[in-house]
Amino acid sequence: MNKLNAGQKKGVQEFVAVTRTTNTNAIKYLKKFAWNLQAAVTDFLEHPPKSTASSSSGGGAFSESTLETFFQKYQSEETKKETATDKKEIDAEGIMRFFDDLGINPESDLVTLVLANKMNAQEMGKFTHEEFTSGMRQLQCDSMVKLKKKIPAMRQELVDSYAFKAVYEYAFRFSKEENQKALNLDTACAMWELLLKDKWSLLDKWCDFLNREHKKAISGDTWNQILDFSRAYNSSLFGYDAEGKDAAWPVLIDEFVEEQLEKLKEGMK
Protein backbone atom coordinates (compact mmCIF):
# COMPACT_ATOMS: atom_id res chain seq x y z
CA MET A 1 0.00 0.00 0.00
CA ASN A 2 2.91 2.37 0.71
CA LYS A 3 3.88 2.50 -2.98
CA LEU A 4 0.38 3.47 -4.12
CA ASN A 5 -0.61 7.06 -4.78
CA ALA A 6 -3.52 8.69 -2.93
CA GLY A 7 -6.05 7.88 -5.64
CA GLN A 8 -4.98 4.24 -5.79
CA LYS A 9 -5.13 3.88 -2.01
CA LYS A 10 -8.67 5.27 -2.05
CA GLY A 11 -9.55 2.80 -4.80
CA VAL A 12 -8.26 -0.09 -2.69
CA GLN A 13 -10.27 1.09 0.32
CA GLU A 14 -13.47 1.39 -1.72
CA PHE A 15 -12.89 -1.99 -3.40
CA VAL A 16 -12.45 -3.67 0.00
CA ALA A 17 -15.53 -1.89 1.40
CA VAL A 18 -17.69 -3.34 -1.37
CA THR A 19 -16.19 -6.83 -1.69
CA ARG A 20 -14.93 -7.44 1.88
CA THR A 21 -11.80 -9.00 0.42
CA THR A 22 -8.14 -8.39 1.26
CA ASN A 23 -5.98 -5.45 0.17
CA THR A 24 -3.87 -7.89 -1.83
CA ASN A 25 -6.87 -9.08 -3.84
CA ALA A 26 -8.08 -5.50 -4.27
CA ILE A 27 -4.75 -4.38 -5.74
CA LYS A 28 -4.60 -7.43 -8.01
CA TYR A 29 -8.03 -6.77 -9.54
CA LEU A 30 -7.59 -2.99 -9.75
CA LYS A 31 -4.25 -3.33 -11.54
CA LYS A 32 -5.85 -5.78 -13.97
CA PHE A 33 -8.33 -3.06 -15.01
CA ALA A 34 -5.95 -0.10 -14.87
CA TRP A 35 -7.50 1.04 -11.57
CA ASN A 36 -11.03 1.23 -12.98
CA LEU A 37 -12.98 0.52 -9.79
CA GLN A 38 -16.30 -0.45 -11.35
CA ALA A 39 -14.72 -2.84 -13.85
CA ALA A 40 -12.52 -4.40 -11.17
CA VAL A 41 -15.42 -4.94 -8.75
CA THR A 42 -17.58 -6.44 -11.50
CA ASP A 43 -14.81 -8.87 -12.45
CA PHE A 44 -14.27 -9.79 -8.80
CA LEU A 45 -17.97 -10.58 -8.34
CA GLU A 46 -18.11 -12.61 -11.54
CA HIS A 47 -14.75 -14.34 -11.06
CA PRO A 48 -13.91 -14.40 -7.34
CA PRO A 49 -10.42 -15.56 -6.35
CA LYS A 50 -10.11 -19.24 -5.62
CA SER A 51 -9.02 -19.75 -2.07
CA THR A 52 -8.69 -22.52 0.42
CA ALA A 53 -8.65 -20.15 3.35
CA SER A 54 -10.15 -21.70 6.42
CA SER A 55 -13.04 -20.28 8.38
CA SER A 56 -12.10 -19.38 11.91
CA SER A 57 -15.43 -20.54 13.27
CA GLY A 58 -17.20 -22.59 10.63
CA GLY A 59 -15.59 -25.98 10.98
CA GLY A 60 -12.49 -26.17 8.78
CA ALA A 61 -11.26 -25.23 5.34
CA PHE A 62 -13.56 -24.21 2.53
CA SER A 63 -14.51 -27.21 0.41
CA GLU A 64 -16.00 -27.29 -3.07
CA SER A 65 -17.71 -30.61 -2.37
CA THR A 66 -19.23 -29.25 0.84
CA LEU A 67 -20.37 -26.17 -1.07
CA GLU A 68 -22.10 -28.41 -3.60
CA THR A 69 -23.93 -30.20 -0.79
CA PHE A 70 -24.91 -26.79 0.62
CA PHE A 71 -26.40 -25.82 -2.74
CA GLN A 72 -28.21 -29.14 -3.15
CA LYS A 73 -29.97 -28.70 0.20
CA TYR A 74 -32.01 -25.86 -1.32
CA GLN A 75 -31.98 -26.87 -4.99
CA SER A 76 -35.37 -27.18 -6.67
CA GLU A 77 -36.62 -30.72 -7.13
CA GLU A 78 -37.21 -30.04 -10.83
CA THR A 79 -33.50 -29.47 -11.48
CA LYS A 80 -31.98 -32.19 -9.27
CA LYS A 81 -31.90 -34.61 -12.20
CA GLU A 82 -30.02 -32.12 -14.39
CA THR A 83 -26.38 -32.90 -15.09
CA ALA A 84 -25.45 -29.54 -16.60
CA THR A 85 -24.72 -26.96 -13.90
CA ASP A 86 -26.31 -24.15 -15.94
CA LYS A 87 -29.64 -25.96 -15.57
CA LYS A 88 -29.46 -26.23 -11.79
CA GLU A 89 -31.10 -23.60 -9.63
CA ILE A 90 -32.71 -22.74 -6.32
CA ASP A 91 -36.30 -21.61 -6.89
CA ALA A 92 -38.47 -19.26 -4.81
CA GLU A 93 -39.46 -22.00 -2.36
CA GLY A 94 -35.84 -22.98 -1.83
CA ILE A 95 -34.85 -19.35 -1.34
CA MET A 96 -37.49 -18.95 1.37
CA ARG A 97 -36.13 -22.05 3.16
CA PHE A 98 -32.59 -20.74 2.72
CA PHE A 99 -33.35 -17.37 4.33
CA ASP A 100 -35.49 -19.01 7.00
CA ASP A 101 -32.53 -21.19 7.97
CA LEU A 102 -30.31 -18.09 7.86
CA GLY A 103 -32.71 -16.37 10.27
CA ILE A 104 -33.47 -13.46 7.94
CA ASN A 105 -36.76 -12.06 6.65
CA PRO A 106 -36.18 -11.52 2.90
CA GLU A 107 -39.07 -9.06 2.68
CA SER A 108 -37.67 -6.57 5.19
CA ASP A 109 -33.98 -7.29 5.85
CA LEU A 110 -31.51 -5.55 3.54
CA VAL A 111 -28.92 -8.24 4.15
CA THR A 112 -30.84 -10.24 1.53
CA LEU A 113 -29.82 -7.65 -1.08
CA VAL A 114 -26.22 -7.62 0.10
CA LEU A 115 -26.09 -11.39 -0.26
CA ALA A 116 -27.88 -11.40 -3.62
CA ASN A 117 -25.42 -8.77 -4.83
CA LYS A 118 -22.48 -10.95 -3.84
CA MET A 119 -24.04 -13.72 -5.90
CA ASN A 120 -24.69 -11.23 -8.71
CA ALA A 121 -28.18 -12.78 -8.88
CA GLN A 122 -30.00 -11.59 -11.99
CA GLU A 123 -33.62 -12.42 -11.12
CA MET A 124 -35.82 -12.29 -8.06
CA GLY A 125 -37.02 -15.68 -6.90
CA LYS A 126 -34.12 -17.66 -8.35
CA PHE A 127 -30.46 -18.38 -7.60
CA THR A 128 -28.66 -20.26 -10.36
CA HIS A 129 -25.94 -22.75 -9.48
CA GLU A 130 -23.29 -20.33 -10.77
CA GLU A 131 -24.70 -17.39 -8.80
CA PHE A 132 -24.99 -19.28 -5.54
CA THR A 133 -21.62 -21.00 -5.68
CA SER A 134 -19.68 -17.93 -6.86
CA GLY A 135 -21.20 -15.85 -4.07
CA MET A 136 -20.37 -18.46 -1.46
CA ARG A 137 -16.81 -18.76 -2.78
CA GLN A 138 -16.39 -15.02 -2.41
CA LEU A 139 -17.62 -15.27 1.17
CA GLN A 140 -15.68 -18.52 1.74
CA CYS A 141 -18.85 -20.17 3.05
CA ASP A 142 -19.69 -23.77 2.30
CA SER A 143 -22.27 -24.17 5.07
CA MET A 144 -25.04 -22.30 6.84
CA VAL A 145 -22.95 -22.20 10.01
CA LYS A 146 -20.21 -20.24 8.22
CA LEU A 147 -22.68 -17.99 6.41
CA LYS A 148 -24.44 -16.97 9.62
CA LYS A 149 -21.13 -15.74 10.97
CA LYS A 150 -20.77 -13.43 7.94
CA ILE A 151 -24.02 -11.56 8.64
CA PRO A 152 -22.45 -8.89 10.92
CA ALA A 153 -19.93 -8.01 8.20
CA MET A 154 -22.71 -7.83 5.59
CA ARG A 155 -24.71 -5.53 7.87
CA GLN A 156 -21.65 -3.32 8.16
CA GLU A 157 -21.70 -2.88 4.38
CA LEU A 158 -25.06 -1.17 4.76
CA VAL A 159 -23.43 1.40 7.03
CA ASP A 160 -20.52 2.19 4.72
CA SER A 161 -21.75 4.82 2.25
CA TYR A 162 -19.81 3.49 -0.74
CA ALA A 163 -20.74 -0.14 -0.09
CA PHE A 164 -24.38 0.86 0.39
CA LYS A 165 -24.33 2.70 -2.94
CA ALA A 166 -23.21 -0.51 -4.66
CA VAL A 167 -26.09 -2.45 -3.06
CA TYR A 168 -28.54 0.36 -3.90
CA GLU A 169 -27.56 0.41 -7.58
CA TYR A 170 -27.66 -3.39 -7.74
CA ALA A 171 -31.22 -3.33 -6.35
CA PHE A 172 -32.44 -1.62 -9.52
CA ARG A 173 -31.00 -4.30 -11.79
CA PHE A 174 -32.24 -7.07 -9.51
CA SER A 175 -35.79 -5.72 -9.22
CA LYS A 176 -36.68 -4.79 -12.79
CA GLU A 177 -38.41 -7.16 -15.15
CA GLU A 178 -36.24 -9.14 -17.54
CA ASN A 179 -35.47 -7.26 -20.78
CA GLN A 180 -36.88 -4.02 -19.34
CA LYS A 181 -34.71 -0.91 -19.04
CA ALA A 182 -36.90 0.84 -16.47
CA LEU A 183 -38.35 -0.21 -13.12
CA ASN A 184 -42.10 -0.37 -12.56
CA LEU A 185 -43.14 2.59 -10.39
CA ASP A 186 -44.85 0.48 -7.71
CA THR A 187 -41.78 -1.74 -7.47
CA ALA A 188 -39.48 1.28 -7.35
CA CYS A 189 -41.39 2.81 -4.45
CA ALA A 190 -41.44 -0.52 -2.61
CA MET A 191 -37.68 -0.87 -3.04
CA TRP A 192 -37.08 2.74 -1.96
CA GLU A 193 -39.15 2.00 1.14
CA LEU A 194 -36.88 -0.93 1.90
CA LEU A 195 -33.64 0.88 1.13
CA LEU A 196 -34.24 4.49 2.19
CA LYS A 197 -37.03 4.49 4.80
CA ASP A 198 -34.55 5.16 7.61
CA LYS A 199 -32.24 7.31 5.53
CA TRP A 200 -34.42 9.90 3.76
CA SER A 201 -37.20 11.78 5.53
CA LEU A 202 -38.68 13.03 2.23
CA LEU A 203 -39.24 9.54 0.83
CA ASP A 204 -43.02 9.43 1.40
CA LYS A 205 -43.45 12.82 -0.24
CA TRP A 206 -41.31 11.71 -3.19
CA CYS A 207 -43.33 8.55 -3.84
CA ASP A 208 -46.61 10.43 -3.40
CA PHE A 209 -45.44 12.96 -5.99
CA LEU A 210 -44.45 10.23 -8.43
CA ASN A 211 -47.78 8.43 -8.11
CA ARG A 212 -49.73 11.65 -8.70
CA GLU A 213 -47.63 13.44 -11.29
CA HIS A 214 -45.20 11.03 -12.93
CA LYS A 215 -47.12 7.76 -13.18
CA LYS A 216 -44.33 6.14 -15.21
CA ALA A 217 -41.57 3.61 -14.75
CA ILE A 218 -38.29 4.79 -13.22
CA SER A 219 -35.14 4.86 -15.33
CA GLY A 220 -31.79 3.67 -14.09
CA ASP A 221 -30.38 7.21 -14.16
CA THR A 222 -33.24 8.56 -12.05
CA TRP A 223 -32.91 5.65 -9.63
CA ASN A 224 -29.19 6.25 -9.14
CA GLN A 225 -29.54 10.02 -8.80
CA ILE A 226 -32.17 9.74 -6.09
CA LEU A 227 -29.65 8.27 -3.67
CA ASP A 228 -27.31 11.21 -4.25
CA PHE A 229 -30.21 13.64 -3.99
CA SER A 230 -31.42 12.07 -0.73
CA ARG A 231 -27.96 12.60 0.73
CA ALA A 232 -27.75 16.19 -0.49
CA TYR A 233 -31.27 17.09 0.68
CA ASN A 234 -32.08 14.70 3.48
CA SER A 235 -34.79 16.62 5.33
CA SER A 236 -35.08 20.13 3.91
CA LEU A 237 -35.25 21.45 0.36
CA PHE A 238 -34.45 25.04 1.26
CA GLY A 239 -31.42 26.27 -0.64
CA TYR A 240 -32.19 24.20 -3.73
CA ASP A 241 -31.13 26.22 -6.78
CA ALA A 242 -32.41 24.74 -10.05
CA GLU A 243 -30.68 27.46 -12.08
CA GLY A 244 -27.37 27.29 -10.27
CA LYS A 245 -25.62 24.65 -8.19
CA ASP A 246 -28.50 22.18 -8.58
CA ALA A 247 -28.93 22.54 -12.33
CA ALA A 248 -27.57 19.04 -12.97
CA TRP A 249 -30.46 17.28 -11.25
CA PRO A 250 -33.09 15.85 -13.66
CA VAL A 251 -36.25 17.80 -14.43
CA LEU A 252 -38.32 15.32 -12.43
CA ILE A 253 -36.46 16.29 -9.26
CA ASP A 254 -36.82 19.99 -10.12
CA GLU A 255 -40.58 19.51 -10.38
CA PHE A 256 -40.71 17.65 -7.08
CA VAL A 257 -38.76 20.35 -5.28
CA GLU A 258 -40.89 23.12 -6.84
CA GLU A 259 -44.10 21.45 -5.67
CA GLN A 260 -42.82 20.86 -2.15
CA LEU A 261 -41.56 24.43 -1.76
CA GLU A 262 -44.89 25.77 -3.01
CA LYS A 263 -46.71 23.67 -0.42
CA LEU A 264 -44.45 25.03 2.29
CA LYS A 265 -45.15 28.60 1.18
CA GLU A 266 -48.88 27.95 1.19
CA GLY A 267 -48.63 26.54 4.68
CA MET A 268 -46.88 29.67 5.92
CA LYS A 269 -49.66 32.00 4.75
Automatic annotation (TrEMBL):
<dbReference type="InterPro" id="IPR042460">
    <property type="entry name" value="DCN1-like_PONY"/>
</dbReference>
<dbReference type="InterPro" id="IPR005176">
    <property type="entry name" value="PONY_dom"/>
</dbReference>
<dbReference type="GO" id="GO:0005886">
    <property type="term" value="C:plasma membrane"/>
</dbReference>
<protein>
    <recommendedName>
        <fullName>Defective in cullin neddylation protein</fullName>
    </recommendedName>
</protein>
<dbReference type="GO" id="GO:0031624">
    <property type="term" value="F:ubiquitin conjugating enzyme binding"/>
</dbReference>
<dbReference type="GO" id="GO:0045116">
    <property type="term" value="P:protein neddylation"/>
</dbReference>
<dbReference type="Pfam" id="PF03556">
    <property type="entry name" value="Cullin_binding"/>
</dbReference>
<dbReference type="InterPro" id="IPR014764">
    <property type="entry name" value="DCN-prot"/>
</dbReference>
<feature type="domain" description="DCUN1">
    <location>
        <begin position="62"/>
        <end position="261"/>
    </location>
</feature>
<dbReference type="GO" id="GO:0032182">
    <property type="term" value="F:ubiquitin-like protein binding"/>
</dbReference>
<dbReference type="GO" id="GO:0097602">
    <property type="term" value="F:cullin family protein binding"/>
</dbReference>
<dbReference type="GO" id="GO:0000151">
    <property type="term" value="C:ubiquitin ligase complex"/>
</dbReference>
<keyword id="KW-0833">Ubl conjugation pathway</keyword>
<comment type="function">
    <text>Neddylation of cullins play an essential role in the regulation of SCF-type complexes activity.</text>
</comment>
<dbReference type="Pfam" id="PF14555">
    <property type="entry name" value="UBA_4"/>
</dbReference>
<dbReference type="InterPro" id="IPR009060">
    <property type="entry name" value="UBA-like_sf"/>
</dbReference>
